[in-house]
# Entry
Amino acid sequence: IGISPLGCAIRIAVYRPCVDCSVPYELSENDALRVEAFDRNRRLDHFLEKADKEDEIWTIAEGDGIAVLGAEDEGGEFVPLWPHPEYASAWIAEAFGDQDLSTLEL
# Structure
């Protein structure tokens, strides 16, 4: 169990490296653009709704685990999470170029 910055308990049942992972739901370009336009609070609501419905979230793989970004002197560490692999892939491509994804079953 981890505690998010929002104080919510997060129970992660299974960590799975993503190799030919199935897509949890169809995400059209229009849907992605609509969500991108949401303010911070609405994006969080969207994330929580999708995570609850799909029972899995996506993050960045690192070795046998998941990536932790940031540093104490930069305001703290965090684990980036997304409700769909397309969101994760887009962010990763912009930030890192190429990186593997992992799913976390909730």
